[in-house]
Amino acid sequence: xxxxxxxxxxxxxxxxxxxxxxxxxxxxxxxxxxxxxxxxxxxxxxxxxxxxxxxxxxxxxxxxxxxxxxxxxxxxxxxxxxxxxxxxxxxxxxxxxxxxxxxxxxxxxxxxxxxxxxxxxxxxxxxxxxxxxxxxxxxxxxxxxx
Length: 146
What we know:
Largest sheet: 3 strands, mixed
Radius of gyration: 14 Å
Strand content: 5-15%
Number of helices: 5
Strand order of the largest sheet: 1-5-4
Order of helices and strands: EHEEEEHHHH
Distance between the termini: 31 Å
Oligomer: single chain
Shape: globular
Helix content: 25-40%
């Protein structure tokens, strides 16, 4: 899996998206893991977003959890969370990293998940699929209020 430090620019997707995305939860086996407990309400909300992720990009393949000792789960999707003029990009495995490996995401991301309104969730989920990448990247630029 690609590794990015939390809150760094995420360049995993199309080059025209580089300025639009902020990385959270792109963990590597050798990376320092920010660990601790997380608020149960945050985790439940994040889990519900991960269960029905908006996918402006579709990739073939996926990634097995590299932090598990034996046969970790396999992930294929990514989460996009708009907030405060930024869009956070996280692998869907972030919920597994939190529950199994005690990963603690940055406070800014936790706040973004808490504050994501129901209306914003609906707009994110109902965004068209199969759009060209440049159009998808434009839609990733946060247009949703705080």
